[in-house]
Specification:
The protein is α/β, with parallel strands linked by helices. The chain folds into 2 domains: 191 residues, P-loop containing nucleotide triphosphate hydrolases (Rossmann fold, 3-Layer(aba) Sandwich), CATH 3.40.50; 74 residues, no CATH class. The protein is built from 8 helices and 10 strands. The strands form 2 sheets. It has a 6-stranded mixed sheet, sandwiched between helices. α3 packs across α4, α5 packs parallel to α6 and α6 runs antiparallel to α8.
């Protein structure tokens, strides 16, 4: 399948963070015993993906249902291994990694952001952000962080996402947008190689979606590498590059030459809603 070449866009000079070559993923579906379909069926979810991302990129992964987005996300997040091909993350060949290395990669190299936030209900925003530090996987010879150092780093991460005054609030005391900010702070607290966000605005209204995409743009402008899996074109326009999957193949890879500014769109959205409120009977 021919890949549509990316148009020239912003020059990214960072070092490679992700390098995938000929990545495939197959699933073995066992047939029903005693039936004509008793023999196992091999289902190919990814048909040979070549994909790379450099430090400082902001990429949206798109595609219809069944295109392979979730499978690719699971491999990117080291939640699954490819059947074939290679995936090198920040210099580590994940294809040859053992369970302990996988755990280290997930804790230190990837910051996860989920659609449903995945915050612990009975712990404060600060305690939620501290969790990755509490379970921090240390590299060889690295000293374990003290409780004070963990607390200070978590507080800084919350301040960085604009929640310095909400540190001791519980998730139920926060709006959806604020809960997602907490999850982004939690994703950033270990200074990962990249942030992997799965439909991060799927549970948010239009205003909160723009707020979160504005935060992602700010983080990217500061040099953070971000990959968002989304089915919404109106979300993808805030990234710098979009790849599209179909039937397990990467069918297009485009730079966004003039990405939209989420902060500006949020201000316009607020103005439009203010006018509607004034005009309401």
């Amino acid at each position: 399948m021919q890949i549509e070449q990316a148009q020239p866009g912003p020059v990214i000079t960072g070092t490679p963070v992700i390098e995938m070559q000929r990545v495939t993923r197959e699933y073995r579906m066992e047939g029903r015993k005693g039936s004509k379909e008793e023999e196992a069926v091999i289902v190919r979810a990814l048909g040979g993906i070549d994909f790379s991302a450099r430090a400082g990129e902001f990429i949206s992964v798109m595609g219809p249902s069944g295109s392979g987005k979730s499978t690719l996300m699971n491999i990117l997040g080291c939640l699954d291994k490819p059947t074939g091909g290679s995936y090198v993350l920040d210099g580590i060949d994940t294809s040859a990694s053992d369970t302990n290395t996988f755990a280290y990669i997930r804790n230190r190299k990837i910051g996860f952001v989920f659609q449903s936030f995945n915050l612990l209900a009975r712990t404060t925003a600060l305690e939620n952000v501290e969790l990755p530090l509490f379970y921090r996987r240390s590299a060889g010879g690295e000293k374990k962080m003290s409780s004070q150092a963990r607390r200070e780093r978590a507080m800084q991460a919350l301040s960085d996402v604009g929640l310095g005054d909400r540190m001791y609030h519980y998730p139920s005391q926060l709006s959806g947008g604020q809960q997602q900010r907490v999850s982004i702070a939690r994703a950033m607290v270990n200074d990962p190689a990249f942030i992997l966000a799965d439909e991060p605005t799927g549970n948010l209204d239009s205003g909160m979606t723009l707020e979160i995409m504005g935060l992602f743009q700010e983080l990217n402008d500061q040099g953070k590498t971000i990959i968002i899996v989304t089915h919404e074109p109106e979300v993808a326009v805030y990234s710098r590059r979009t790849i599209n999957l179909k039937d397990g193949f990467l069918v297009s890879d485009k730079e966004i030459l003039e990405r939209r500014n989420a902060r500006q769109d949020l201000e316009q959205w607020k103005q439009d809603h203010a006018l509607l409120a004034e005009e309401a009977p």
